[in-house]
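Protein: Dimethyl sulfoxide reductase
Species: Salmonella enterica
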Amino acid sequence: MHELPLLIFTLCLQGSVGVTLWLALGRQYAVEGRVPAHGALPAMAGAFVLACVGLLASALHMGYPLNALNALRHVASSWLSREIVFASLYLAALGLGVVLLFFRKPGWQPLLALAAAFGLVDVFCMAQVYIHASVATWQHSNTLALFFGTSGIIGSVVIALAYLRNAGAAMRCAVIVVALMVLIRLIMQPLWLADINAVDTTVVTFPHHPLQALAQLRDVYLLGWCVSAAGMLCFAAGGLRNARGTLVAGSVLLLLGEIMLRYVFFSIG
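Structure follows.
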C-alpha cells in the first residue's frame, strides 16, 4: 500500500496541529479550571509524538531522509521546501514547549502559541504542495478544506476525550468545530466533482484517468462520508447530552472517516 506513509504523515501532522491549536487558543477556556496548567502536558506531549510519527512516515516515504535537506534549497520557489521548513519550526517550538512545561519553567505558553502559528502555516503549505502537483483531482480548494478539516476534527476529538468531562461551553465549541468541518467539506463535494469532471486531463501528467480511479473507489468514498457524518451526529449527541459512550463512538467514527477519505484522496491521485 504505497499511500500508507503519506496517509500517516498527513493525518498525524494535521491532527497534531489541531491539538496544539486547541491548547493554544482554548487552553484557558477549556482546560484551566478543570485541571492545573501542568495537566496540559499529556496533550502537548501527545501532539509532539503525533507530529514525530508523521514526520518519520514522511521521511520513509522519501526513501532517503537526506532528500529533505536537499529540498530546503528551494524555499523561495517550492511549496515542499516551505512545508519542510514550517514542519521543522512547528516541531521545534512544540518540543521546547513540552520540555519547559515538564520542568515547570516559564515560557511554554508563548512557545505553544508560536507552535500553533507554525502549524497552521505548515498545513497550508502541505495543501499547496498537492494543489500545485500535476494531479487533476488535487488541484482544487477541496484539498485545503480536507486538510484543515482534519486538524479541526482530530484536535476537537482529542481535547474532548482528554479534558472535557461535561456538556459545558467548551464541549459545545468542540461540537460546533466538528460539525462545521464535516459539513463544509461535505458541501464542497458536488463542486469538486463538477470541477474535476470539467477538467481537461490531457494537460496533466497524473492521474491519467482520475474519474475512472474515483469510480473504482466510489463505494469507499461514499462510505467514508457516511461514516464521517454518522460520527459527527454521535459526537454532537454525546457531547451535548453528556453521554460518554456516544461521544467515544462518534470520535471513533470520525477518525475512521478521516482515514477512509484520506485513503481515497491519495488513491485517486
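Remarks: The radius of gyration is 19 Å.
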